[in-house]
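Retro notes, item 3 of 5
We never archived the inputs for the S-adenosylmethionine complex last cycle. Fixing that now. Sequence and ligand:
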Amino acid sequence: MKQKFVAFLHKGPYAAAVRVALLAVVVLVALCPVSYFAPSAWSALAGIASVSLLFIGIVLLNRLRAKLDDTAALLSVESAMQRLGWAPKDFFTDGAAGSPSLQLFHIKVLSLIRPRNILELGSGQTSKLISAYVADSPGSHAISIEQSQEWHDILRPSISHEYKVVPVAKRHVEGVDVLSYQLDLHDQKFDYVLVDGPDNNLEGWRYTPFSRAGIVDQLPGALAPEFVVVFDDAERPGERQTVELFSKRLTQGGIAHRRFTLIGVKHQAVFVSPNLAFLQSV
Ligand SMILES: C[S@@+](CC[C@H](N)C(=O)[O-])C[C@H]1O[C@@H](n2cnc3c(N)ncnc32)[C@H](O)[C@@H]1O
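Structure as it came back at the time:
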């Protein structure tokens, strides 16, 4: 029983909220005598507690809405994969995999824009869809970059396009050391770039300054005139810094673009050439 209670406090999507609510109840009970000796202080405390609970409620509702949006996105992903004939045998959207909102936008880019040259940083379920698209689109080319030999070997049987293990090293970006693929894009031009790596080997919520920013200086010069660039995990503070830096680099490079954000359980920051701005609302 005790073990179950401890697990309840540590696991599950709302464990942190449950812990805060429990702590609030304990603190309020401990402070009960204050209501007798200092009624006005007690009223202030009760007010603060009510506002905090309201705030927690709003946060939870927001997460629930994001989950529902992602569930709707997953239904669309599943049916689009069937209609397009791109359904990989093993396709998942939980754990470290791209979220349904990312996968849905990914399918829209592949099927509506029909990119000719794709660069993917960080491999997974999205890579399986790229393989299905490339097999279905003569003249198109894609390369997926992976830092982990182990993950590459697991995924390899499901990937038929170019798929490479590229080691990561620290690169100095904006005054910080950033884990970066040791990659030189030379004079290649990509019309679709998906940035979902490298993995920092940390729990996703831990702040990593300028996470995944190692590619930002090279990327503007490697874009075709019509392009889509997607940064996954754009809700994290480190990725947000990277997205702002990339926006700055595009502007400095005189590259006209539109920018928007997809919001589900995770967020994606999207940059497109102006003629592809319609992608925001399809
Ligand atoms: C966020 S993941 C990329 C996810 C990918 N876009 C997808 O849709 O699944 C970034 C990196 O995490 C690692 N990774 C991805 N999935 C993993 C898994 N299931 N287990 C362990 N590592 C994983 C890989 O090194 C990958 O390059």
